[in-house]
Specification:
Shape: globular
Largest sheet: 5 strands, parallel
InterPro entries: 4pyrrol_Mease (IPR000878), 4pyrrol_Methylase_sf (IPR035996), 4pyrrole_Mease_sub1 (IPR014777), 4pyrrole_Mease_sub2 (IPR014776), CobF (IPR012797)
EC number: 2.1.1.152
GO molecular function: precorrin-6A synthase (deacetylating) activity
Pathway: Cofactor biosynthesis; adenosylcobalamin biosynthesis
Low-confidence stretches: none
Distance between the termini: 50 Å
Keywords: Cobalamin biosynthesis, Methyltransferase, S-adenosyl-L-methionine, Transferase
Strand order of the largest sheet: 3-2-4-1-5
Structural class: alpha/beta
Helix content: 25-40%
Number of strands: 10
Mean pLDDT: 92
Radius of gyration: 19 Å
CATH architecture of the largest domain: 3-Layer(aba) Sandwich
Number of helices: 7
CATH superfamily of the largest domain: Tetrapyrrole methylase, N-terminal domain
Amino acid sequence: MIHLSLIGIGTGNPDHVTLAAVRALNEADLILLPRKGDAKSDLVDLRRLLCETLLSDDSGARVVEFDLPRRSADGDYLGAVGDWHAAIARVWESLITGHLPEGGRVGMLIWGDPSLYDSSLRIAGRLDRAGRNVDVEVVPGITSLQVLTAEHRIPLNALAEPVQITTGRRLRERGWPEGAASVAVMLDSGGAFEALSPDGLHIWWGAYLGMDKQCLIEGPLSEAGPMIQARRAALREQHGWIMDIYLIARQPLL
């Protein structure tokens, strides 16, 4: 039996890691840390730091790093994602079998929370379908949405109004979601908000949330949009990668 803990670690700030996450880390026999290439070496560095900071001296956890397979940029998007997930599952299976041939407890450190635009649960499901006896535990974590609204000191929704969470791809292709008073946008490769008419829209943007290089911009979309695009390009050039998120609303949130 393999017990797999998908441990939400928030945005990489040790102060955002819950006591439940610390306990799950220390109970693990094996902790797997993915590497995403040199451009995003900061991400595995943060995971290493969390392990060094949060694992107790008497923890028996073995920390193993692995190279994450790359997703193909060609062809059908959903098909490419499915193939990518299958490749990651095969890597997980190989590592778990190699390091825990008799079974045990595995910990995976998940950015934010495993429930929100993260595919670890779907990949773990592939292990089950492959005949591996896997018991999955989810340890919730703080999301970038929570940090964004906290840093800007705003609620997520207008009073008594719905909010929709979507991706940059869908915002660019389909525009403003019908019936939404505010829209949170994740996984934007850059500037999907430019597909919207800026009239009456306000944006709250954040990059590297919770990290020491955190950057925030807010204002009317017509004014803040170009500022965000320029700052985003400069930060990506400086650090080699960027993770950002934003909230757009048609009416005041406070």
